[in-house]
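assembly run, all chains below
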Amino acid sequence: MSFLIGTEAIAHVAFWIVVGLTFGGAVIAVFPRNIIYNVLGLVMALSGVAGLYLYLGSFFIALMQLLIYVGAICISIVFAIMLSRPLHLEVPKRSVPKVAMAAGASAIFFAAVVGVIFKSNWVPAPEQSGDWSVVTIGHLLLTRYDLVFEVISLVLLVAIIGAIVTAGYSRRFSS
Amino acid sequence: MKWMLFSPEIFYLLAALCFLLLSMTGRLHRRRDHHIALALAVAGVAVCVASLQLEGSLFSETYKIDLFSQVFKLLLSVGLALVVGICSELRGIQERYEHEVYLLLFPCTLATMLLVSSIHWLGVYVSLELSSYSLYILVALRKDWTQGIEAGLKYFLVGVFASAMMLFGMVILYGTTGTLDVKQLAQILPGLMSHAAVVVGLLLALSGFFFKLAVFPFHFWAADVYQGAAHQIAAYIATVSKVAAIAVLVRMVAMLGGSSDYFVHVLAVLSVVSMTVGNLAAIAQKDLKRLLAYSTVAHAGYVLIGILSMNPGGYAGAIFYAMAILVMKFTVFLVLVKVAWDGTNLEVDGLAGLHRRSPLLAMALMVALFSLAGLPPTVGFTGKFLIFTAAMERGHFALVLIAMINVVISLYYYLLMLRAAYLLEPQEQCSPLSLSAPIKLLAGALVVVMVAAGIFPRYLMDLARNAAQGLM
Amino acid sequence: MLTWSLGFLILMVKLGAVLLFLLLAAAYLVWLERKFLARLQVRYGPNRAGKYGLLQPIADMIKMLTKEDTIPEGADRVIFLLAPAVVTVTALLMFAVIPFGGDLSFLGKRIPMVIADLNIGLLFVFALSSLGVYGIALGGWASNSKYSLLGGIRGAAQMISYELSLGLSLVPVVMLAGSFSLVDIVRAQEAYPFILVQPLAFVIFVISAMAESKRIPFDLPEAENELGAGYHTEYSGIRFGLFFLGEYVNMQVLGALVAVLFLGGWSGPFLSGPAWFCIKILVVALVMIWIRGTLPRLRYDQLMALGWKVLIPLALVNIVVTGAVILI
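ok done. output:
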């Protein structure tokens, strides 16, 4: 019964699957020219991140990640793409210098981050004050992070106004 | 009453909601809206003056009210009132969206005020987003919508990139220290400053404000956005938004930056490159607003010198310089709005014959340009003087020398503008500009302020010093 | 090790039982709907295969399995093939957190009659139902057909809109129960079902749930007289069958949710827990069929106005009122 050897091995495998999902999703989100695939790659990567949260033991955050990023944000991107021009039309060519520059810049940034990660000796985060249940998070949101919580609603209001205003342009443009 | 501490913010929130309701009534009453906005903005200044002496903290110590924050709130409210003052004719804005201008200006000012007081990175981040989102939309409201949308999109893309960097930096900070509370960080960080991760995290976390301040390498948006936005909006970005960014940078560096040579070196490089790039690029510009944008980049470089000196004099200098920027940049934009009254963009040569069309505006422009260039006896000179002496105290001779050279370079293009206003003859006959009495009064007052604050800077300097004292 | 293996076994048995039950129930729900609808419209409904047409679902299943699985020209193959699975899988997964009855005793162990009692089960249901939109939107988009595309767009817009009122209508329930766990919510209703104290939330929830499952009067995504069959116009064979299955599983999910959240779940006199639960689901399903037989389809603007201007504000008011009552 080798497949039953402890949950630890399973968790380990699950971790690498999730990492692969995140990374593969990120690659798909960047490289294909079909924009729907890009969004789906993003969906994959974000689901992978949700998996990472799950691995770290926060089921709530994982579900929120799914609900908000995959279920709401990416869906609205898909929705917007469905309303945009058809995909069988020709896609503008990728200019090689631009791609090279972007690749170079991200490579440098990646190298810098990796360097920082290896140079600093990470201390495992001290066990945070125990329970991170929905109740605790709710209490924190309405006490310590009250201001942040309320300002976010203002941000959303402004964003909605912005969406309406900019959508108004395109309507006039097409008619 | 603890909520008294929060009164300026509450006032601006209510004002914003007031315009939200007004915008729902549908019909546009341009004069009425402008009068309401002006009244609210002036009342906001009064509220900020009244709350100048308040001290305390809110939201479990994540929101600090001290002299520093209150001085900046006053500056921000003054900036808003000034900008609203030149909004009487919004010819650069699409008519159907004129409602939204005030509706967005007030939350944006509210956000900048929250920025000034927040001492928790999450609060800082969310407030920054609020102010940025409002500005993205305001820029896109330009009447010539291709220009507006293009500028808005560029602003948005650079801004989103900067926010992402900032979040990344915050994540690194949190990963290394386990907290985002600036007060706690201030206790933990000094011992950790040798860690590369902490310095990188801090720099990335500050990049959101480098973006706001248009510091190299986040300055790419400035020229296009100034050019693409309506004049009033560009004025707002050049004044209020810059003041807020300076405030946050000063506070964060003062509380967290301490005693890391590496950190200072990076800031010094950013400062030098910003000054040089800004000034050299400004020389090549024909469009007045593009020129002002690059001059802003250069000024961001000067402010950084004050901040990286990391002594009370440097911080006080940066605060004083924020006040100076507010007044002098606004004066130039006032002239711009009045000369380009139809809302179109203005070339430098378009200033030709200004001294005949309106001697008052020409004089205001002259004083403002002298001040921007840093010639005595104007407020700009005092600001630069304070910053440079603070830097000298810390031994940054090379930096000051480079800054001096840059000041000389900048003199060239400021004088070009002045030449256009006073010496060039206009191509065709231009009618004199008719100014309303309040605008005349405003222009006169600005001239007086710029000169008076240059000659007798004592009061403002003390204010800046006291505010900076509270930081340490 | 033994307990681990036993737990694994019990989990597998539970999964198998639920899956089997769901698929069978879905098949006979179709039969029930056709029969009941036919009676409402003074017809006979299916009556050739077996007595009362009872074998009709099996005949349908064989038909779907054996039909050619066509892919239209110009379709995006990968997404086209994937989309139906998304719809079915998300619908099936929701049953993971729904409790069918009280705890069961077996070999001295207490076995809860739920696959996984998450303490945030309700959020799990929401997350999955929000993922279900992908199937509709992508299926419509990938078919490379204007009817499908329009259906997909309509479906996405409708589901995004009604998800809000769906979620908001449940906030008072969560506030009353003090938990996101569906088991706890059922336990909180031991004294009285929440439909008595939250009639408004119940109405909003049922309306939004019907819109979420795209049933008449909210079937704009597949409005047959305008769009052919909407987002699944181009699908045939088993892939159409998956969409179909997803829809009926969804109906059961909604019935189960209504039962759990408002009707007291498995609790009831005389009969055993699961029996009561099935009866409650059946009643909800019958009401939904009844509504289908009664109401005409909404216009698109009416649909959006109902969601955004009526249901969401009402749900918000309901939250505030409930909160105030709880505080007092």
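Chain B has one domain: 2-471.

The first helix of chain B runs from residue 7 to 24.

not gonna interpret more than that til we talk
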